[in-house]
Structure formats: structure tokens, C-alpha cells
Amino acid sequence: MAAPETTIWSMDRHTQAKHEILRRYLGAWIPILIHRCGRVRIIDGFAGPGEYEGGAIGSPLIALQTLLTHPAQKVQDAIRRGTVELIFIERDSQRSAHLQQLLVQQKRVKGDAPKLQPRIITGTFLEEMDKLLTLMERQNANGRPIPTFVFIDPFGYSHAPLSMIKRIMSLPMCEVLINFMYDEINRFLTVQYQTKEQHYDLLFGTDTWRQIALQSTNADERRRLQHDLYRHQLLAVGHARYVRSFRMRNEHNATDYYLFFGTNSIRGLEEMKRAMWGVDQTGGFEFSDFSNPFQPLLLTEPNYADLQRMLTENFKGQVVSVANIKEYVLAETPFVIFKQEALRPMELTSPPKIRVINPAPKRIKGRYPLDDMLIEFL
Ligand SMILES: C[S@@+](CC[C@H](N)C(=O)[O-])C[C@H]1O[C@@H](n2cnc3c(N)ncnc32)[C@H](O)[C@@H]1O
């Protein structure tokens, strides 16, 4: 899709799915962060005008509404205390003015304004995030880091260099959700990459993408290699401990974009995966986990036989704790839940495929309540 030039534009189905993920994730994760740290900050780095043609709301208003209508008392208390920050960055002055106007309208409709005043910054993500990061780095140095979620949702590929993501991820409790515009990147990579070399170097944080451009002519392979390179760079250079990616395919069966999520928190990863699994997929698009590029898992029908196979392949002959299994499932597979769905049938089958080494005296078979239970994969 070419970047629209009007102040607002019509929404595609993928955007709907992306918004649903955002809503679910923030709804689940923000109360946990507030519970742990008392404060939280959300930065929407490519905020847009706040609404689409027809009136559907955009990401900044989704974040705002999720917070204002959140049922958890601790979220409302944090808002009242002024410890929830919302920052929206938008380069286009007409779009940022439109967003500003929507926020004013919203305040008027809602009457008494709560103590949550989103800050709209008209400027580029690169420059503004640089300033914010300087502040965040100072807060961290003073022992007062604020958990921060950064949503990076550009139209193209030239505005969010890996070095910036590395700075974000180097701070404690910071995480990123990145819209990786594969379609755009691929188009230029194949046609006219020579004029864009510097952008690609910055995007990937390396120049090894050139090998993909030079050597790979097969579209599927190119997609996989680009995906893998970006993921690798987020992990190896970008300081993200966990990275998940999800593929959005459009109605012509072409990959439009990937959502990459980078976090250092296994709990954050769990909530994001739940959000992704939970998205309503009746919109006709394909939305798949991209753990295995040759066999992407459609997030509609979890097949737990696949998970059992993965567990066996990974742990065969080993004794591991339930906590280890959980980390593996969350970090390395598309799945979220595993106890009843995978471990239980593996224990109850004959002959069993797993054995509990240190069962509590009255343990019921097929239950794994404790993280330190030890499981042998036979
Ligand atoms: C895909 S749209 C964002 C949509 C929005 N996140 C949502 O989900 O509703 C990308 C936005 O980024 C803005 N933009 C483009 N380049 C930018 C930059 N360098 N810094 C900040 N904003 C930029 C565009 O004007 C556009 O409004």
C-alpha cells in the first residue's frame, strides 16, 4: 500500500487486527506493570491522526481509551496519581493537529478531565525519541526507570533504525512492538535498492542484507531471509531477550507486514502471545505465527500434537523443570499454554512420554502446579 497523503485515510483489515492486539496487550500488561512499578509510559512513535475515514479510532486513542476505561482499580488510581504517561509522536503537522482536536473533543464529551494528559509531539520519531531516550537514560541512572512500551508503526522502512531500538531495549522494562513493512522493504530491495542502501543499513543495523538482495531471487526465500535477519539483529544487536514475530497476509495471499515484538520480560511475552492468539480472525486475513517459516502456524486452530513433538525434540533424554518448559514454550514456540494440552497427554499415554521426578505426596497425575517440578522426557 502506498503511503496515503491525506490527513486521514481508510483502514485496512490488518490495521484492525493490529489495533486489536494493541488493545488486548495494553489491557492485560499495563495493570501488571503498574502493580509492579507504580508507573508506566506508552510512546506511540508514529501516532497518525487518531482516526480513520468512517470514524474508527487509531492507535493513540486506543491506548488512551484502554487506560481510561480499564476496570482495574490500580490503573485508575495510577491515572489519578499522574503516574501514567502517554506520548504521541507524529511528523505531519495536519495529522498531529487532527489528533489534538480529537483529544480536545474527547475531553469535552467526557466532562471532567482525568489526570491523564497525553502529550502530542509534532516531530520525527528519530529526533523526538532521541530526546525522550536521553531523559529515560537519566531516570534510569538515577535509579527510577519507568516501564515503557514503544509502538513503532511507520508507513515505510526508513524511520526506525536498529540503533534506536537498541537504545530503547537497553533500558530496563522497555519493550517495542514494530510494524515491519515487508512489502515496502521487499519492493525496494528487489528493484532499486542501490538508492536506498543507507536506509537498509540503518534498518537492519548491518550491511549483510545486501547478500539477500544480490543472491536471492525466490520471493519466499527472500521473505524468510529478511525476516530472519531482522529477528537475529533484534536479538543479537538490539538487546531484546525475546522476540516474536507474526505475519499478516493480505487477501492476495502476499505478506504485507510482520509485527515484531521485542521484550526482556517473559511475562510480557506471555501477555503479548495471548493478545495475538486472542485476536478475532473472522476478517478474512491470514494471521500466523512465524516461528517456523516453512510451516507458519495459523492462529486459529492450535494443534497441540505439534507442541508435543517440539517438546520431545527439544528435551528428549533430559530432566527439566516446569519453569524451563514454560520459558521454552513461550520463547521458542508459537504456543502459550502447555500443561493440560501437551504435558498431561504425554504423561497419561501408554507408554508415557514424560515422567515427574519429584512428585508431591498427593499429586494427581496430569497436574503441574509447581514451577520447580522436575519432568523427565523419556
Ligand atoms: C501507519 S501510520 C500510523 C497509524 C497509527 N499508528 C495507527 O495505528 O492508527 C504512520 C504515521 O506516521 C507518520 N510518520 C511518518 N514518518 C514519520 C516520522 N519519521 N516520525 C513520526 N511520524 C511519522 C505518518 O504521517 C503517519 O501518520
Automatic annotation (TrEMBL):
InterPro entries according to UniProt: Tcm_partner (IPR031009)
NCBIfam families: tcm_partner (TIGR04474)
Name under which the protein is recorded: Three-Cys-motif partner protein TcmP
Taxonomic source organism: Reticulibacter mediterranei
